């Protein structure tokens, strides 16, 4: 259904249009034939009663007009109200005037005044003019305000006026018919005007019928056309008994048949068709509604005022696992599922009190799973507004709730361990701090991470590393109370928050320290993985609080300071925060800030320690970095190198060292005594893993012009444990440039012959820890001999570090060592001093 005025009208079928056009064509052809026939009287004197035949024809028109008036009077369409008033008014006048025309015909008894052809013609013309004006007004859709009775009364006044003029004042009007001569020019012109008006109305109505698709307009258009063509018959006859006169009356009868048909279509046929259409649409809508109810995912229930089931849709059947037949007519209290009975019953009773209720509830399914449902329950009312039942709609919200829970889990919990994440931990820490401020009870915060976890991750794989983190999280859970919190901050870093440790500070610290030690021992237990056991330890920083004005960020910072100190002291331990740590941290932060500007301020210095051969000849130097601080003086590498490693400053500093070393090698190229000397540069693990390291070395060699064979890079064993293949690839790339390698501090790490033989090394360096007790310590002597023998078998050179006495030098010489470095030969110093 649309909002257009004609949407409810019956639409003209193609055959209706064909009939209308056919009738119009036949009418035109018939009139053309009638006008071309010879003029002849149709009724001879005494043969047939012409007045009687004429009266019968006119009575048909009068009856049709009366029927049109009756149907227009009783039309029920408010939309066709104006059209009904116009038709009722016009055709009431036409019926009366046609009656006056018939009884005024020559040969009829006198009615107030004698009958005559002129009198009959006058009433005829009045009827035809009113008729065509009525049709034109209908075609123009002129509004007709006011009650129908007023319009009908107006029609009576108009007829009375015409009757008075035609009966008593006709002689005062121009003649329209002259006996023996026929029609006057005035009569003919009036008839042609009526013809033109009818044809105009017909064209107008045909256009509206096509545009608005209304069948009654089509029949009105056909009637106007036939009436207009029929009026041509009244333009040429000489006597009332002429054939054309009677032929024109036949056209009038046909036209009135179509006028009746149009009125019948509007008043009787159209409502019937609309009723059929409405019934069809109702059936269609009902079918569509049933389809919707059958297929809608929401469960729908209708209950009567006594809470008996009237209707359940298939979705409700599926939710209950029961057929609809079991619900029909049963009371709500008989519902199988207790959760549903409780919530539906409560909502239905509120609805019977006139309330609309919306809520969400959870219910246990028959398989034991929990489902979540959104319920909307409203009262049903009759036309008088009385509550007669309840309509309930239930939407399954299980997936949405699970998605929300998953989103909350993702937002607040760590995906790997299932522990609270940083966000949730901060919220809980905030709550614990607020509670401690109210109760003055102590609490504790621990920050811990797994020692050397990255090495395990790199050597055994990320999958095993993730599994280890998961198991570590489980062990942490087992070490705390339900009221405490353990969270994963990221990587291998965890946080533990202990609440309600009492109001005694010493007792609270003892409890916290006990829990921390319990955690340390739990994490020190081996982690089993498919026959493999992984040993790891943990370092913990502990800080206590008791409601003082301190933020979560400050507590975490203090715990981090304590953790850092635990690592400095050797890892695998618990360290409690004290204020001196904060001072040390501030000093370290200031030192780091100064280190960032050390290169630009030219505060870094290179010191050189000689490396000599068996006869004491100079083989080269090891380059050692020093920092000449403007206020602190000479800063130990043990202080600033770890800072550079942690902060990433090792990259620009390391690049600076390489560049200066290469420039020094280039400066020696023209010195015959030093042209063959080597410079050994220490490289940190973080430097060497940098993807740009090979390019950095190559660039330093190229820009300085140094001989690559004189540059030796010293690596440590610990940096060879992760990504060995990648390490070898980098070493081989540098070896192709001519760079040589030493393995520093050999014997202190986890040496493995399997990877040692794969490395492109040319030198091992015996660590000073194995040299300092020579030759008296038998174990150190055995280790030194083993390293020398291993190097000899692999074709590698050896340099012994930390040689400080003649006895050490002589022992190593005797065992076959041909390279030495230590205070016995020279301390690290600037180049000129060295």
UniProtKB/TrEMBL annotation:
Where does the PAC domain start and stop, copy by copy? Answer: 357-409
Record keywords, A-Z: Membrane, Transmembrane, Transmembrane helix
> Which InterPro entries does the annotation name?
Biofilm_reg_signaling, EAL_dom, EAL_sf, GGDEF_dom, MASE3, Nucleotide_cyclase, PAC, PAS
What CDD domains does the record point to? EAL (cd01948), GGDEF (cd01949), PAS (cd00130)
Question: What Gene3D superfamilies does its record include?
Answer: 3.30.70.270, EAL domain, PAS domain
Q: Name one GO biological process term.
A: cellular response to nitric oxide
Q: Spell out the PROSITE patterns in the cross-references.
A: EAL (PS50883), GGDEF (PS50887), PAC (PS50113), PAS (PS50112)
Q: Where are the transmembrane segments?
A: 16-35, 55-74, 86-108, 120-142, 149-168, 188-206, 218-237, 257-276
Keyword Heme listed? The answer is no
A Pfam family assignment: MASE3
> Lineage of this protein's species?
Bacteria, Pseudomonadati, Pseudomonadota, Betaproteobacteria, Burkholderiales
Name recorded for this polypeptide:
GGDEF domain-containing protein
Query: Record's superkingdom?
Result: Bacteria
Gene Ontology MF, one: cyclic-guanylate-specific phosphodiesterase activity
Q: Does the keyword Membrane apply?
A: yes
Q: Which residues form the GGDEF domain?
A: 441-579
Q: Name the source organism.
A: Roseateles depolymerans
Q: Where is the EAL domain?
A: 588-834
The record lists the catalysed reaction(s) as: 3',3'-c-di-GMP + H2O = 5'-phosphoguanylyl(3'->5')guanosine + H(+)
Q: Which residues form the PAS domain?
A: 285-355
């Amino acid at each position: 259904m649309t909002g257009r005025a004609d949407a409810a009208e019956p639409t003209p079928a193609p055959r209706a249009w064909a009939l209308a056009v056919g009738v119009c064509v036949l009418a035109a052809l018939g009139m053309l034939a009638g006008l071309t026939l010879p003029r002849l009287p149709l009724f001879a004197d005494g043969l047939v009663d012409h007045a009687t035949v004429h009266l019968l024809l006119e009575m048909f028109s009068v009856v049709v007009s009366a029927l049109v008036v009756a149907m227009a009077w009783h039309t029920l369409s408010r939309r066709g109200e104006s059209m009904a008033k116009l038709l009722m008014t016009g055709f009431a006048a036409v019926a009366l005037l046609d009656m006056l025309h018939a009884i005024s015909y020559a040969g009829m008894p006198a009615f107030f005044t004698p009958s005559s052809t002129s009198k009959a013609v006058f009433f005829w013309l009045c009827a035809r003019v009113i008729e065509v004006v009525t049709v034109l007004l209908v075609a123009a859709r002129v509004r007709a305000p006011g009650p129908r009775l007023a319009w009908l009364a107006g029609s009576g006044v108009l007829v009375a006026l015409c009757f008075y003029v035609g009966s008593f004042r006709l002689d005062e009007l121009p003649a329209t018919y002259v006996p023996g001569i026929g029609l006057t020019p005035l009569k003919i012109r009036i008839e042609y005007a009526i013809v033109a008006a009818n044809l105009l109305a017909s064209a107008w109505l045909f256009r509206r019928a096509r545009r608005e698709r209304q069948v009654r307009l089509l029949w009105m258009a056909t009637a106007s056309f036939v009436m207009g063509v029929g009026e041509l018959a009244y333009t040429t006859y000489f006597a009332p008994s002429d054939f054309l006169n009677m032929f024109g009356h036949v056209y009038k009868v046909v036209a009135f048949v179509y006028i009746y048909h149009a009125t019948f279509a509007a008043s009787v046929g159209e409502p019937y068709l609309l009723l059929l259409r409405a019934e069809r649409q109702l059936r269609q809508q009902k079918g569509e509604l049933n389809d919707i109810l059958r297929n809608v995912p929401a469960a729908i229930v209708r209950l009567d005022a006594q809470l008996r089931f009237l209707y359940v849709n298939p979705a409700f059947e599926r939710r209950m696992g029961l057929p609809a037949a079991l619900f029909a007519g049963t009371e709500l209290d008989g519902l199988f599922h207790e959760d549903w009975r409780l919530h539906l019953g409560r909502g239905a009773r509120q609805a019977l009190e006139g309330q609309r209720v919306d809520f969400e509830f959870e219910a246990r399914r028959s398989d034991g799973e929990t489902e979540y449902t959104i319920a909307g329950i409203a009262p049903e009312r009759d036309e008088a507004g009385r509550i007669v039942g309840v309509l309930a709609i239930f939407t399954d919200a299980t997936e949405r709730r699970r998605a929300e829970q998953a989103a909350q889990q993702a937002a607040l919990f760590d995906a790997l361990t299932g522990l609270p994440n940083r966000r949730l931990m901060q919220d809980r820490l905030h709550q614990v701090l607020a509670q401690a401020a109210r109760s003055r009870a102590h609490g504790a915060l621990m920050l811990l991470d797994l020692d050397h976890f990255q090495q395990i991750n790199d050597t055994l794989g990320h999958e095993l590393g993730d599994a280890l983190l998961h198991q570590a999280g489980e062990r942490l859970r087992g070490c705390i109370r339900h009221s405490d919190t353990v969270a994963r901050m990221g990587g291998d870093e965890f946080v533990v928050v202990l609440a309600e440790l009492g109001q005694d500070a010493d007792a609270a610290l003892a409890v916290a320290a006990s829990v921390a030690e319990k955690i340390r021992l739990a994490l020190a237990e081996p982690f089993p993985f498919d026959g493999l056991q992984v040993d790891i330890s943990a370092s913990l920083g502990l800080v206590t609080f008791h409601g003082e004005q301190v933020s979560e960020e400050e507590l975490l910072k203090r715990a981090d300071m304590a953790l850092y100190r635990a690592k400095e002291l050797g890892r695998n331990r618990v360290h409690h925060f004290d204020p001196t740590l904060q001072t040390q941290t501030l000093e370290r932060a200031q030192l780091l800030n100064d280190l960032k500007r050390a290169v630009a301020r030219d505060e870094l210095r290179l010191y050189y320690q000689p490396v000599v051969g068996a006869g004491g000849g100079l083989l080269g130097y090891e380059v050692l970095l020093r920092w000449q601080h403007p206020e602190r003086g000479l800063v130990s590498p043990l202080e600033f190198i770890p800072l550079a490693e942690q902060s990433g400053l090792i990259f620009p500093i390391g690049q600076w060292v390489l560049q200066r070393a290469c420039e020094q090698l280039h400066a020696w190229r023209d010195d015959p005594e030093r042209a063959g000397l080597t410079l050994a540069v220490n490289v940190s693990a973080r430097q060497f893993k940098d993807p740009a390291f090979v390019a950095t070395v190559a660039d330093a060699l190229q820009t300085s012009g140094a001989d690559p064979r004189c540059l030796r890079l010293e690596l440590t064993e610990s940096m060879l444990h992760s990504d060995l293949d990648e390490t070898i690839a980098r070493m081989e790339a540098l070896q192709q440039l001519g760079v040589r390698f030493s393995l520093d501090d050999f014997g202190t790490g986890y040496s493995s012959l399997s990877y040692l033989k794969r490395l492109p090394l040319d030198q091992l360096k015996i660590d000073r820890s194995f040299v300092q007790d020579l030759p008296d310590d038998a174990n150190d002597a055995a280790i030194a001999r083993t390293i020398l023998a291993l190097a000899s078998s692999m074709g590698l050179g050896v340099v012994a570090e930390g040689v400080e006495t003649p006895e050490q030098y002589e022992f190593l010489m005797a065992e076959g060592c041909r390279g030495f470095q230590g205070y016995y030969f020279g301390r690290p110093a600037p180049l000129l001093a060295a």
